[in-house]
Specification:
2 domains, Signal recognition particle alu RNA binding heterodimer, srp9/1, single chain, alpha/beta, globular, 4-stranded mixed beta sheet, about 130 residues, 2 helices
Length: about 130
């Protein structure tokens, strides 16, 4: 067993079209650290991979329609990154190729928040708590 795999908690698991490319993109856009990438027997797709983003594991794999896992568009979720410097994370992600879907700004609840879509169709939210004056 990989020493970096989580021992508990909730780990998002994405299926994407081009998991190897997604890993490379997440390294560039979100500072991900690649932990493992296990190819299928043909070596043309990844059966399982793990990257850590902001200290949290993210699992991913390619689609495998030949085994009953056909491509589907991501839906009904986003991956939320809560960080200390939202603008830095935002600028890096946009610079790497993410598309802005909701601009980064201070929201009515007080936090800085925005949403992006990566080239694989996954929505990412970036948030930062704003300290209130005591």
């Amino acid at each position: 067993m990989n020493e970096f795999r989580p021992k508990s908690g909730l780990t998002p698991y994405l299926s994407v079209d081009g998991a190897r490319k997604a890993i490379d993109f997440y390294v560039q856009a979100f500072g991900a650290i690649e932990r493992e990438a296990i190819p299928n027997d043909a070596g043309d797709r990844l059966m399982h991979a793990q990257v850590d983003v902001n200290g949290t594991p993210l699992f991913l794999s390619d689609f495998f329609p030949d085994y009953g896992y056909p491509p589907v568009a991501p839906q009904a979720f986003n991956l939320h990154l809560h960080v200390d410097d939202a603008q830095q994370w935002w600028d890096r992600a946009v610079g790497a190729g993410c598309t802005v879907t909701s601009p980064l700004k201070q929201e009515f609840w007080g936090d800085i928040y925005g949403q992006l879509k990566d080239p694989f169709g996954v929505t990412w939210a970036i948030g930062q708590s704003v300290q209130k004056d005591a």
